[in-house]
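4.2 Preliminary Data

To establish feasibility before requesting continued support, the project team ran the inverse folding procedure on a target of 205 residues. The structure was first converted into the token representation described in Section 3, and no sequence information of any kind was made available to the design step. The complete token record follows.
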């Protein structure tokens, strides 16, 4: 039986990494095999692309190049990890996926949506997440939570306006693809957020 594919999305600092393990725990407790992974990254080569796109500062990365790097990594990730896991009946939980590209490279960097949709069609070959959890909060909240950490990557150096555009693009996608998106108010306390996540995952299980 084909596994289920769940993605977690949201702007910086809204609690994706924190809640990824929580969601994974619920799925494992129900007895399913599970792959927990992330983007950019998820395979050895795609992790190298992640290092380039997040941390290399020695050469400008134009928005188009950034977009293509995201989909190159995704192509490796889908072929070498996500599809094989789903085909073996494993569930997959992924920290960010293509909705992040529409939000960051589309909303944030201004890359045309139809260009992103073309790449999505090539690379996904029909696959879409069964469920996308959008952890939503005002960027001021996410940035304040994330700000307590170490050195910033290329995205973390962006201003609050950039993250407002990213958030708006995420919310627009959640409205357009309401059949697979669940929007969770991540400004609340962690126990409140996790109560809602528990309900959402139990419904799927
Ligand atoms: N990117 C892209 O541009 N295009 C793409 O296609 C893809 C990605 C796939 C790396 O992503 C960057 O890649 C990302 C977009 C770009 N850059 N940005 N921004 P990433 O997922 O690796 O990095 P991130 O967004 O920077 O994740 P993050 O900063 O680690 O945020 P998070 O995982 O959502 O938050 P967290 O680490 O779970 O929580 C942050 C802190 O808040 C932590 O101390 C928690 O304990 C605390 N927290 C969490 N929830 C709560 C609540 N509810 N209350 C209080 N405190 C909380």
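Position-by-position output of the design step:
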């Amino acid at each position: 039986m084909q596994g289920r594919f769940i993605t977690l999305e949201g702007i910086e600092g809204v609690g994706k990494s924190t809640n990824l393990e929580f969601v994974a725990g619920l799925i494992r407790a129900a007895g399913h095999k599970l792959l927990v992974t992330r983007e950019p990254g998820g395979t050895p080569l795609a992790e190298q692309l992640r290092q380039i796109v997040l941390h290399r500062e020695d050469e400008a990365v134009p928005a188009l190049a950034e977009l293509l790097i995201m989909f190159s990594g995704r192509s490796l990730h889908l072929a070498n990890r996500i599809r094989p896991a789903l085909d073996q009946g494993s569930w997959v939980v992924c920290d960010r996926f293509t909705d992040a590209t529409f939000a960051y490279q589309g909303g944030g960097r201004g890359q045309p949506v139809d260009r992103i949709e073309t790449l999505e069609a090539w690379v996904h070959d029909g696959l879409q997440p069964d469920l996308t959890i959008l952890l939503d909060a005002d960027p001021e909240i996410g940035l304040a939570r994330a700000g307590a950490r170490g050195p910033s990557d290329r995205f973390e150096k962006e201003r609050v306006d950039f993250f407002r555009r990213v958030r708006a693009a995420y919310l627009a996608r959640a409205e357009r693809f309401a059949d697979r998106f669940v929007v969770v108010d991540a400004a609340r306390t962690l126990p409140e957020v996790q109560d809602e996540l528990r309900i959402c995952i139990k419904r799927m299980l």
